[in-house]
Amino acid sequence: MLEIKNLHVKLEEEDKQILKGVNLTVEAGKVHAIMGPNGSGKSTLSYVLSGREGYEVTEGSATLEGEELLEMEPEERAAAGLFLAFQYPVEIPGVGNMTFLRTAVNAQRKARGEEEMSAAEFLKVVREKAKALKIDADMLKRPVNMGFSGGEKKRNEILQMAMLEPKMCILDETDSGLDVDAMKLVSEGVNALRDEGRAFLVITHYQRLLDHITPDVVHIMAGGRIVKTGGPELALEVERNGYADIMSEAV
Amino acid sequence: MAALDAEVREGVDRETVETVQAMAGKYKHGWETDIEMEFAPKGLNEDIVRLISEKNGEPEWMLAWRLEAYQRWVKMEEPRWAMLNYPEIDYQDQFYYAKPKSMAEKPKSLDEVDPKLLATYEKLGIPLKEQMILAGVEGAENAPAEGRKVAVDAVFDSVSLGTTFKDELAKAGVIFCSISEAIREHPELVKKYLGSVVPQSDNFFATLNSAVFSDGSFVYIPEGVRCPMELSTYFRINAENTGQFERTLIIADKGAYVSYLEGCTAPQRDTNQLHAAVVEIVALDDAEVKYSTVQNWYPGDENGKGGIYNFVTKRADCRGDRSKVMWTQVETGSAITWKYPSCILRGDDSQGEFYSIAIANNMQQADTGTKMIHLGKNTRSRIVSKGISAGKAQNTYRGLVTMHPKAKNSRNYTQCDSLLIGDQCGAHTVPYIEVKNNSSRVEHEATTSKVDEDQLFYCRSRGMDEEEAVALVVNGFCKEVLQALPMEFAMEAQSLVAISLEGSVG
User: Fold this and answer.
1) What is the distance in angstroms between the Cα of B207 and the nearest Cα belonging to chain A?
2) Do the beta carbons of residue A7 and residue A19 sit within 8 Å?
3) Bridge partners of B236?
4) Which member of A99, A143, A160 has the closest CB to residue B462?
5) Which of B23, B333, B437, B485 registers the highest number of CB atoms within 10 A of its CB?
């Protein structure tokens, strides 16, 4: 599904190398987790994959189902099936949540040459999916993320994911700022989307999210590289001993 | 009903984005109608004023009024206080009267109007047949099921082609006709109200208009009547080097209500064209008037060549107690915009509202705002202005709020938001506030922001392309004003907002 080879990335504004040769392959149907201390390059990886400006790829490649991602515009990546659940979802004043969703869904469909969703069908689907995430009618009408609590914002990201039905989902610290109940709701939302044709890359600081979303593979990232890869037990090890052991081991 | 409305509106946003995608950019009303015209000689003098009056078959008193205005005008100087930069206008190098030859004999009804002219309006999407809803507006079929009728007065260069729904309006006692017809048929009303809100001597452009106005619309809503449909005037400048000087007079008698829409377009030309209109509204006791404009004159090209110079005086007199006037404007066109729709809140408890979206892209310059003159007790006014600047455009909000000594317990709330796209444009806010009593309150809030890169990236990461993303974010910024527009206009305005900003990013 997603294949990252020897990816080197630096900041455009300053001469600072953030990613120093990331190699990662995520197969369809699998959930991979990336853990790591602050400043290890986890969020940069998610931004570079989704096409945010401000980064320069100096070496390496990233492909989605064989297609080179790094040359595509952000909207082309989205249409190709990539989705990033933001760590800090953006507020857009005056734009109804529902309008935003519908515009996004149909923009992607159009880009793929598919028929657009009718207003009636869209309403039906969005209400159904919102219900599962305990998103009420009011939240669907309010402007995108405006005045949403931390938990509401993250649930809204998962709703977007459910509506857009991407192939490759990247969750960037989706657990940050969530209380236990919200974490449960979000995790259930993610688990409901797990299937053979879809892959997940879950970026997190903490093991606790992985109690709810069980990963197939866990990677530890440090200093712009993946320094260790293992099964779910690796996350527990980090939880017990912190990153220091693993990092010294890797060096 | 409210829920349905909300859902329709939700749909509208999306329709807009699609409409914009479908249009290949550029000004879409830039074509011209090839038709034989009759012009008055170029330039302006007393004879031209007499000629216009004669062409309109006016009585002596009207000619005298025009000549008085002309005599004033020659002694006046063009105002230069606005933040606008344009070359000297040669008032002798203009045509002041242009009329399609086929209109020499005034047609009795729209059925007799030259098909070429009717086709012009059809192409613009303006229904001159008595249809239920505005044609050419995508998604209009989703409008509430009870149907909405809109009566139209079509003004082509200097003349009105005719108005629709005359009979049905007449049954309700509503007079909706061209101003030239009103001068002939309803002289008592015209004499009483013309110039009573915007006097002949008001300002350079209004005085010019008083001398040479050729046509425009006239509306009278009798006491206690709620106008059974929306009224609209559609202005089209077609002829080259021709100024359009229309005059609109709306009178809402006691307890009357009317919603009035105004639309404007012009062909794409290299030369600048002058438009100097006057709109006067009189609202008597308990009357309510809503006046909405979508101004889409040709804005000139990206290098600032061509475009309309738009110098307009619009003013409402809330003469009666508890009367209410609401101005809503979406200004997307014109090379130069000089326009301050205002309210004189004379009656006690009267209310004035002003909602504005002004978009300036490329080399456009807009200096626009409002005046709220509080004279009566307990008067209220509300101003919401959204200015959007892109390219190398300059956009100024200029507003005046005055509370006179007798305007006790009056309130004003003003909100001015400016949005900048790119780093070569400018936004300016010039509010004047005068409070001469101590029981009134004036509030002013202003913000200036740039289109947020994070917002655009967020939209794009969900699959929208850059222009779609800008259109969505900007429409969100304008939401409060778009919501104040009647449904059909709101849709047109949303797509205009997006079209006007094409090419402003990237």
Assistant:
1) 41
2) yes
3) B156, B265
4) A160
5) B333
The complex's ipTM works out to 0.95
What residues have CB less than 8 Å from B443, skipping those under 6 apart?
Answer: B412, B413, B414
Render pLDDT for B360-390 as a digit per residue (tens, 0 to 9).
Answer: 888 889 999 999 999 999 999 999 999 988 8
Q: Which two tokens stand for residue B42?
A: 């170029």
β-pairing, B150-156 vs B159-163, is antiparallel
* Neighboring chain B residues of A139 at a CB cutoff of 8 Å: none
* Half-sphere exposure of residue B451: CA atoms within 13 angstroms, side-chain side: 29
A104: closest CA of chain B, how far (Å):
6
d(CA B421, CA B301): 18
SS3 B146: coil
pLDDT digits (tens, 9 = 90+) for B153-201: 877 776 777 777 888 898 999 999 989 999 999 999 999 999 999 999 9
B79: left (phi over 0), alpha (psi -120 to 50) or beta: beta
State the number of CA atoms in the 13 A half-sphere of A16 facing the CB: 10
Q: Tokens for B455?
A: 């917002």
Q: Which has the closest alpha carbon to A97: A130, A139, A127? A: A139
Of B453, B472, B478, nearest to A103 by CB-CB distance is: B472
pLDDT digits (tens, 9 = 90+) for A107-163: 999 999 999 888 888 999 999 999 988 888 889 999 999 999 888 999 999 999 999
